[in-house]
Amino acid sequence: MKLKIAALALFSALSLSAQAQTEIQWWHSMDGALNDWVNDLAKQFNGSQSAYKVVPTYKGEYDQSMAAGIAAYRAGNAPDILQVFEVGTATMMYSKGAIKPVAEVMKDGGAKFDPKIFIPAVAGYYTAPNGQMMSFPFNSSTTVFYYNKDAFKAAGVDPEKAPTTWPEVVSIAAKLKASGNKCPFTTSWMTWAQLESFSTWHNVTYASKNNGFGGLDARLEFNSPLHVRHFENLGNMSKQGLFVYRGRASKAVNSFTTGECAMFVGSSGSYASIKRDSKFAFAESTLPYYPDVPGAPQNTIIGGASLWVMSGKPADHYKGIAAFFSFLSDPKVQAANHQRTGYLPITMAAYEMTEKSGFYKQNPGADVAVNQMIKKTTDKSRGVRLGNMVQIRAILDEETEQIWIGKKTAKEALDDAVKRGNEQLAKFQAANK
Amino acid sequence: MEKRVLFRATWLPYLLLAPQLVIVGVFFFWPAGQALIQSLQQQDAFGNSVTWVGLENFQALWNDASYVESFKTTMLFAVLVTSLGLSIALVLAVFADRIVKGAAFYKTVLILPYAVAPVVSGILWAFMFSSSIGVVTYGLRQIGFEWNHLLNGQHAMALIVMAAVWKQISYNFLFFLAGLQSIPKSLIEAAAIDGARPWRRFWTIQFPLLSPTAFFLLVVNMVYAFFDTFAIVDATTKGGPGKETSILVYRVYFDGFKGMDFGGSAAQSVVLMAIVIGLTVIQFRYVEKKVQY
Question: Closest by alpha carbon to A22, among A45, A4, A1?
């Protein structure tokens, strides 16, 4: 009996001390090694102070965790922090009252916050037209070019010189094919890499109203002569067996790591897994561009996710979140994140710190993504912020596949995608009036 | 000479029915009603701005040429899944019924796929047929057949049909086997004595006596093909290439749970509901007449 009472007392004492700590629920989509990273960040923060406890929970892939967060909000049970991928940005931003802008959270929480410390192309993506930062940039990647050095050597191409323009890619692809290579070039993320990033890289618009940054009435413009030219080029490469289509989203990355495809456009975030899984020498380089286009290359577009703060929480939660975000903004934490995960450094200070440490000298190519991003952005290259982006990307996958099948010309496919995509934009505009 | 048991109390039947009614109400009629309401609304993802739009969501579907196209895709898919699923399961059940040695093992193995979730089935098949690392793709390439479901619509359709059928065969098999075993042995023996060969015995005795089972399975398989297969499509083709394998229920799932367009998704599920109700009515009206109980 005594033992029981003692146990009870101990238990209540423990739960009391637990209650004194404010718990902050953080739903995210980081699995595998990245899950360990997120848990380590929470542990590090929780150990640095005693008032708040950040509790990270894995809620499935990006679309699943976003759906889970929205369902929880509808049920009145939202987490404090929700990690949302870049295509969900417009949905979160235009949601009335569901979220609390990060700038406001930091101000209310009494934390020092200077949005200027972030890399412009990253911060701009998550900033409202009035200059208010809406969400906290967390893990950002971008599209880069990878090539198999061994395959280049086998085809008699200089493996130390990466192709920087599309004409060069085509001529190397032809040499690779002549040497017996079955898949000279492939790309993952047809929409993100070959349309969204392609547009900002060439400083041409993807949609009107500065790619949607200017308001909900933006409409798609990715059927311009340059876009059509690019997809005609890819279509021709496909016909000649120089480009092999390997599926939607990130499916194609396997074709590169197995050594099947020699040149590959994909996420800079794939660097670590390619390095781990591939059995050949490879290098990372900047995205190819068309040299006759004025203003190219500009900057590429970011992918990845940011952290959104949900509304309607008690004030002490917001204080805790502000403290956590201040911790995450620390250059040391940022630089460690960048070097550990391969995601972009989110602040300039973190980039400079990493450079000084000699990290890029030891890991050549790790700075390719950064160099593509640290330029000053233009109105056309800041990013893409459109509603129903998930559907628009699916429409583009469907329509561009018609080019590789040979059912539609590049122009027909892009025109149809613009038409169908604009219906989605009109719908989103009507639903978010 | 009918014998009937009469319950005098009027509340008793209702009481006995109550649990079932509650389950049907909560899990079927309530969600269906919600879908009906949402199909007339347009709302943002968080449900903070909801407007009544009447039949606009349905109008948008009607005007979408690709939506009408996916009706054809869905019908083709449903017919293939149902006919292949039923006929393969029937053949397997007939053989399992005749087998003497190792029958338990054989049956267990055949029933196993039923325990696999649709999405897992989809992933398994996608792996085997993957264009760069698939085992089957590799084998096919060795015999000179280039498999590419990423760009060939027929290959893609074949892939989702195989995954959907494979998963459903166990279920059909169980029912067919039970049906076969409930046929009195004396009937078959009598036919055998009269000199009927196995094939003839099957067509004139077993198959007609199986017709109630077959009819039940027809309805269930249709509903399965229409409603339960989105996970398979999601894990294998995602509706591609183009929209070649974009069946109706996959679009409901995609627009609702990935696209967060709840009004449009609800309108689609109402349409789907109407189709399946219509099909079931037709089946009960016309096909059931041919069934001998």
Answer: A45
Which of A97, A246, A398 is facing B131, going by the closest CB pair? A246
Helix axis angle, B56-63 to B262-282, nearest 10°: 80
- Per-residue HEC secondary structure of B68-133 comes to HHHHHHHHHHHHHHHHHHHHHHHHHHHHHHHCCCCHHHHHHHHHHHHHCCHHHHHHHHHHHCCCCC
> Torsion angle, CA of A356/A359/A363/A366, rounded to 10 degrees?
-70
ipTM: 0.83
Task: Out of B47, B240, B255, name the one closest to residue A401 (CB).
Answer: B240
Contact A201, A278 (CB under 8 A): no
The reply to whether A246 touches chain B by the CB within 8 Å rule is yes
The reply to whether A260 touches chain B by the CB within 8 Å rule is yes
Of A98, A260, A391, the CB nearest to B132: A260
| A405 and chain B in contact, CB less than 8 A | yes
pTM score of the predicted model: 0.87
Identify the pLDDT of residue B288.
77
Contacts of B263 in chain A (CB under 8 A): 431
pLDDT per position as a tens digit, B8-42 = 778 888 899 999 999 999 999 999 999 999 999 98
Residue from the list A66, A98, A247 with its beta carbon closest to the beta carbon of B48: A98
Q: Report which residue type is found at A70.
A: I
* Sign, Cα dihedral of A293, A298, A303, A308: negative
A264 touching chain B per CB within 8 A: no
Sole residue written with tokens 């999601």: B234
Tokens of A121: 């192309």
Partner B contacted by A61 (CB < 8 A): no
Could you give the count of Cα atoms lying within 13 Å of B271 in the half-sphere of its Cβ? 24
Q: Which of B45, B133, B240 sits opposite A70 (nearest CB)?
A: B45
- Distance, CA of B36 to CA of B38 (rounded, Å): 6
> CA-to-CA distance for A233 and A404, rounded, in angstroms?
11
A256 lies within 8 A of chain B by CB = no
Question: Average pLDDT by consecutive 10-residue portion of chain A (433 residues)?
Answer: 52 51 94 90 94 94 90 93 93 89 91 86 86 92 95 95 96 96 95 95 95 93 96 97 92 92 92 87 95 93 93 92 94 91 89 91 86 87 91 93 95 96 91 81
In angstroms, the CA B52 to CA B39 distance is: 9
Q: Phi-psi category of B42—alpha, beta or left, where left has phi over 0 and alpha has psi -120 to 50?
A: beta
Nearest chain A residue to B254 by CA distance is A391
Interchain pair A394, B60: CB under 8 A: no
Task: Say if the Cβ atoms of B132 and A98 lie within 8 Å.
Answer: no
In angstroms, the CA A322 to CA A109 distance is 5
Q: Which residue has the higher pLDDT, A15 or B150?
A: B150
Minimal C-alpha gap between A67 and chain B (Å): 6
CB B147 within 8 A of CB B136: yes
State the distance between the two ends of chain A, measured CA to CA, in whole angstroms.
64
DSSP state of A259: T
Q: Any bridge partners for residue A265, and if so which?
A: A145, A187
